[in-house]
């Protein structure tokens, strides 16, 4: 896969649809080999490849830096968790897994309520869905949960007055991520993983026809 031809929008869509439950890469691999990119096109391709391959490691890195910034503003921790959830709900895999686990937990106490939390069925016309499959969380459209969690996090950010501290921590975490992704040489595992994810995407699109 030529990462130089992958646009930022394609990368964001891939990160939104990919499964984030995979464990992080080992630290011995994460800090293995660093080299300077030979050209701007090589840097662009390397940056996108590493951001996709080490996505879980970068997520843990940013969260760790944010936690250090939250030590001064404890209430900001709750606001950050709500913000992280509202962003995570935009990922199709996370939204589906979250809804399934919540529904399974509710079913143990109230099967009747769990039945109401099932997503509506998508009408099928001539063997294929009539429209693009919408994402539901606990029987409600995804945007409802995103709006609720975003509003609650905005209120807590305002009350805690810790937004500036968190922004500095977030900037440091993002800077560390970009520096690592720019100088970490993509290895064979990263390329093989890229091909595997590309095959899965093609197969998923084929199965939806």
From TrEMBL:
Subcellular location: Endomembrane system; Membrane
Domain of life: Eukaryota
GO BP annotations listed: vesicle-mediated transport
Stretches assigned to coiled coil: none
Keywords linked to the UniProt accession: Membrane, Transmembrane, Transmembrane helix, Transport
Primary location group: membrane
TM helices/strands, residue ranges: 52-71, 77-98, 143-160, 166-183
GO cellular component, one term: endoplasmic reticulum
Membrane topology summary: Multi-pass membrane protein
PANTHER family: PRA1 FAMILY PROTEIN, PRA1 PROTEIN
Similarity-based family: Belongs to the PRA1 family.
Function: May be involved in both secretory and endocytic intracellular trafficking in the endosomal/prevacuolar compartments.
The name this protein goes by in its record: PRA1 family protein
């Amino acid at each position: 896969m030529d990462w130089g031809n992958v646009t930022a929008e394609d990368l964001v869509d891939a990160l939104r649809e990919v499964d984030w439950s995979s464990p992080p890469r080992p630290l011995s691999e994460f800090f293995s080999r660093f080299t300077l990119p030979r050209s701007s096109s090589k840097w662009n391709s390397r940056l996108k490849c590493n951001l996709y391959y080490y996505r879980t490691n970068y997520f843990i890195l940013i969260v760790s830096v944010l936690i250090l910034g939250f030590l001064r503003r404890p209430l900001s921790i709750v606001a950050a968790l709500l913000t992280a959830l509202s962003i995570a709900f935009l990922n199709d895999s996370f939204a589906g897994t979250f809804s399934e686990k919540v529904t399974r937990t509710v079913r143990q106490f109230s099967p009747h309520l769990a039945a109401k939390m099932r997503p509506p069925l998508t009408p099928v016309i001539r063997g294929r869905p009539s429209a693009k499959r919408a994402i539901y969380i606990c029987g409600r459209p995804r945007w409802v949960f995103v709006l609720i969690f975003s509003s609650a996090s905005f209120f807590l950010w305002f009350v805690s007055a810790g937004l500036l501290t968190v922004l500095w921590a977030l900037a440091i975490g993002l800077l560390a991520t970009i520096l690592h992704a720019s100088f970490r040489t993509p290895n064979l595992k990263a390329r093989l993983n890229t091909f595997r994810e590309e095959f899965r995407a093609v197969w998923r699109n084929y199965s939806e026809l």
